[in-house]
Amino acid sequence: MAKKKPVSQKEPRVTLKTIAQHLGLTSGTVSAALNNSAAARSIPEHTKERIIAAARELNYRPNYFARSLRLQRTYTIGVIAEEIGDPYGAMVISGVEEYLRRHNYFFLTVIHRHDQRVLQAYSQMLLTRGVEGFITTDMSITHDLGRPTVAVAGHERMKGVTNIVLDEKAAARYALSHLQQLGHEEIAFMIGDPFSSDSAARWAAIRATADELGIRIQPELTVQIAGGDPTPHLGYPFAKELLAHKRPFTALFAYNDISAIGAMWAFREAGLRVPEDISVVGFDDIPLAAFSNPGLTTVRQPMQRMGQIAAKTVIDQIEGKAEHVPEIVIEPEFIVRASTAPLVRQHFDRNGSRTNPSAQRESQANHGRSR
Asked: What is the pLDDT of residue 11?
């Protein structure tokens, strides 16, 4: 006779009521503390800590579906990013995810690829799925999305939209002052793709700052990158284009780190050394910047922090904790690594190629000794 299999006994589900009974508190107090709602402000800090500790001890798992039905809310944010794999957007979304997770919000992500029609279609699709707000990266919003919206690197003023922007003027001054102090006067520039929301603002700040510092921007030493390649190949062909102009330069200020790293590969292929022959400055301070060869001097955008600020801003507006502000300006930092160095005065031949005076003198000395 076959033995009956024992019936599996499931552990009873831990609810807010379970925690409340365990601590001798009301379910409302426990709910307010765990959801960090407005009512939690009146709960003593030591009581909040007891509630959180008990929830961990009892392995409490919140029922988000039940909570959404009860409160008529979805606790979901729509994140509209430029593309998957973009280093800038990935860092921003990392900050968004970290903040939303801590505050028990979900997010749904779609990709806009700088297409306003796609943005409009996807925003409507996300609205039908109940999102309570939007966060966009590298896209200026040109129409009302119908929910509280935060645009990271947005520059168009729009009702209901908070733009989080970097102080581009300060960033340009950091980079250009650094190169000027190292003795560089012939500086080449890579301008961002027109589709990038930061491109126009950054280039305007660079031009204004160069004028203030007495740095001449030469058309022959200026090139505009194009395309959305998220790899260093973004800057590689445009660095080769700069070299093809046969106009000598001793430094490059690139639109972003990815294009700067690609430019260094192009320079190296042309027999030029970084920073001995050409100093290179990037922008963003993506993780790869510190591990490029050489390490990249760059303007740092606190991208994860910008994502966290975006998430906090949109939640505060959804929950009525803060009034709408049109713009939040973030201060950059400047990170000096091995890709920039003091200018070594060099000679150029008729074709615009460099000749190193110290190398020439050493060659002449060796020739004299051999005679």
From this structure: 63
